Amino acid sequence: MQYSLGIDAGGTFTDGVIIRDSDGVILDATKVLTTYPDPIGGIKKVIDSLNPDYVRDVKLVSVSTTLSTNTILEDTGFPVGVILVGDYVIPAEGFPAKYYVRLSGGHTSNGEEAAPLDEEGVKLFALDVKDQVAAFSVSSFFSNRNSEHELRVKHIIRELTGLPVVCGHELSQEVGAYDRAITAYLNAQLLPITHKFIQSIMQDIKSRGIDANLLMLKCDGSVVGMEEALERPIESIFSGPAASLVGAAFLTKYDTCVMVDVGGTSTDVALIRNGVPELSDQGAVVGGWKTMVKAIRMETSATGGDSHVWVQEQKFFIGPRRVIPLCRAAVEYTGFLERIKECKSPSRKLLCENVQPTKFFVRTGATSLELTRTEEEIYDVIQGMPLSYVDIFQRLKKQPSVRALDSLIQKRLVQSIGFTPTDALHVLGDFRQWETEASVIGAERLAKQLRISKEEVCSMVKQKVARNMASDLVSYLVEGIPGSVVDRMLSGENFTRFKVETPVVLLGGPVVAYKEEMEKLIDASIVVPEHANVGNAVGSLVGKGIKRVEILIKRDFAPITGENITDEELKTVKEVIRYFVFSPGNRSVFPQYMDAYEFARETGKELIMDYMRAAGYSKDEVEIEVTKKDLMIREGEEPVESKVIVVGIGTSKLVVEKDVIPDYMHKKAISSRSAENSYSGK
Questions:
Q1: Which residues contact 49 (CB under 8 A, 6 or more apart)?
Q2: In angstroms, rounded to a whole number, what is the distance separating the alpha carbons of residues 405 and 399?
Q3: SS3 content of the chain, % helix, strand, coil (to 5)
Q4: Domain assignment present for 462
Q5: 325 and 452: one domain?
Q6: End of a domain among 457, 485, 508?
Q7: 81, 234 in Cβ contact below 8 A?
Q8: How much is the pLDDT for 243?
Q9: How far apart (Å, rounded) are the C-alpha atoms in residues 408 and 397?
Q10: What is the mean pLDDT of residues 147-156?
Q11: Which domain holds residue 369?
């Protein structure tokens, strides 16, 4: 008998499931706390907690993670040196990287050199910042049409520094140099974290004697081999929500449903139609930055079970930062409950996100990076027991710098503890897993600041989380609807409610606590399936192998030369038609359109199969479909541009048993055609 192991490393919990390959039945499941800042400890605990009789016969291990997403959302990625080649215009708010330079170079839309590359500038910048960064990224104008300058920059930097370099053309073939630069920067920022994460998993699996194929779920709901995952960690952003979406469909047996997943850091909404995740027409947006990564279309907000609840000027806020809940910290740190009871509250005038009567700080155990003197002073006093802002004040004998404290958090050297929605549920009795007394003390302290009761504080937090879930759902299903209209509809003051025709599946730990509140806000069939708390881990296993390659064919007119035309033709023809084929990392030129199309089609198929083999699929297990979108000027003429779209779909690794379906799952879901990505000739 063979089994598959699914693992999801989330911001708060790491989940694991064992599924029998022959019928898709879930045989074992477990949930442990994610270890921070290195999640491999939690993954090891998950595998240790599962039935060893199943584990030893595992032949497939698939992983999904919110590691990349949370790193970007929390702005805790590694520093990157960014090189922008070409005539870039930086927006008024600036480029997100601290270290970047603009240099001459780049190409035209036909892939011809627009200006020589400033190689000396590349060398000076690389040598200047190499000791301050963990990686480099480079994005050149029209590198999707000619990658020569990006590859030259990569070679120079690798020779001078030995650090990893990410090129924009390696991640996207779409037009848009600035967005491609953002994508490359974010990918480089994640490289050190992802390499450590994936390599640790591979080492642990190997040390257990497990001979299994390792896959990672991508943000479009498909799976990829670990080698490619190592090179493109940016494609794992939203892999957690993608896993939840695929898992929601698997657990409920719905072909079409909308999922609301409440995690530790965020709430995510996504839709699956006829068994295929709905993809965004645009690149994934994360942390406010638009990328060129194809991902599931998703509505997400920085509100989760572990979001920090804090007060300022008699108002309360939730998020965006994630903290350890007070109730959990009281179990993890001996003596912390007494510390909460005894610690003094800071002055109301000082209150901000990092200065709270319920917030504490503790070392993570991560290796110390280069610190400023102010950061080092604070870091030195945070030892052993978690400390409050007032505790740090008393030990330093001066007021700590809030900016330096925040920097230590961003560098993953210090982790925060605070009041969260999970604490609110403990106080209300909706969820009991850790030390409720710690949550009660926290609620009382916040209530004192807001001048209301602790029960009112917790009810307000619970209602705000449920309202956020409903708001995200409405905004997702009706794109472009103003927030003010959503708020009015959810208020119920106008004797109307938003009706959702497709089933709504809730996933997450204590998500059942929000079901009743959600039903008050929207008219929908809301389902919390069995194993809802490990839906991500289930989804990491049942994702399909899907790969999409787009290759552009562009018609152009070349000036006449003796090399491209005969003497006879020279008498009547002023210019020669040629066809450029722009495939990932390559530019080819053909005299005939059909030759260009044939080359594009076969190149796409080869790229698909290379990808699929890396993901563990054989040729017989992959179906490839080729479609073409043409931009025409006159009917009957050959296209000015063609986009050749090659899609490969691997057969499922699991046989899903559909004979036994719970009663609540018999309701018919809405059927709708799969959304198609629009094509612009720009």
A1: 16, 30, 32
A2: 11
A3: 40, 25, 35
A4: no
A5: yes
A6: 457
A7: no
A8: 81
A9: 19
A10: 93
A11: 308-457
Q: Domain count of the chain?
A: 2
Residues 315 and 416 occupy one common structural domain: yes
Task: Report the pLDDT value the prediction gives residue 451, as an integer from 0 to 100.
Answer: 92
Locate tokens 């642990």: which residue? 204
Return the structure tokens found at 62.
Answer: 């698939």
Convert 311-347 to b/e letters by CB count within 10 Å (16 or more is b).
beeeebebbbbbbbbbbbbbeebeebbebbeebebbe
Cα–Cα nearest to 140, from 198, 93, 188, 82:
82
Tokens of 166: 């990410």
Per the listing, tokens 């390559």 go with: 586
CA dihedral 197, 203, 207, 211 (to 10 degrees): 100
Query: How many residues in total does the chain contain?
Result: 682
More confident residue, 94 or 341: 341
Asked whether the predicted pLDDT for residue 679 surpasses 80, the reply is no
pLDDT confidence of residue 682: 27
Q: Is residue 315 in some structural domain?
A: yes
Whether residue 587 has pLDDT greater than 90: no
Q: What is the pLDDT of residue 665?
A: 30
H/E segment holding residue 423 = helix 421-428
CA–CA separation, 586 and 578 (whole Å): 16
How far is residue 551's CA from residue 588's CA, in Å, rounded to a whole number?
11
Q: Is 495 helix (H, G, I), strand (E, B) or coil?
A: coil
Tell me the DSSP string of 510-542: TGGGGHHHHHHHEES-EE--TTGGGHHHHHHHH
How does DSSP classify residue 471?
H
From the number of C-beta atoms within 10 Å of its C-beta (0-12, 13-18, 19+), residue 480 rates as exposed
Q: Do the beta carbons of residue 55 and residue 18 sit within 8 Å? A: yes
Task: From 620, 608, 580, 615, select the one nearest 596 (Cα to Cα).
Answer: 580
- Banded pLDDT at 675 (limits 50, 70, 90): very low
Domain co-membership, 452 together with 561: no
pLDDT at res. 680: 30
Q: How many CB atoms lie within 10 A of CB 606?
A: 13
Q: What is the mean pLDDT of residues 28-55?
A: 87
Report pLDDT for 654. Answer: 52
* 355 and 453, same domain (yes or no): yes
Is position 398 within any domain? Answer: yes
Q: What is the pLDDT of residue 457?
A: 94
Token digits of residue 564: 């491209």
Question: pLDDT digits over 512-546, tens only?
Answer: 889 988 888 888 899 998 888 888 788 877 766 67
Q: Between the CA of residue 611 and those of 235, 540, 548, 604, 614, what are the distances in Å?
A: 14, 18, 10, 11, 5
pTM of the model: 0.68
The one-letter amino acid code at 463 reads Q
Taking the CA atoms of residue 10, residue 11, residue 12 and residue 16 in that order, the dihedral angle to the nearest 10 degrees is 10
129: in domain: no
Side chain identity at 365, as an amino acid letter? G
Strand partners, 296: 279
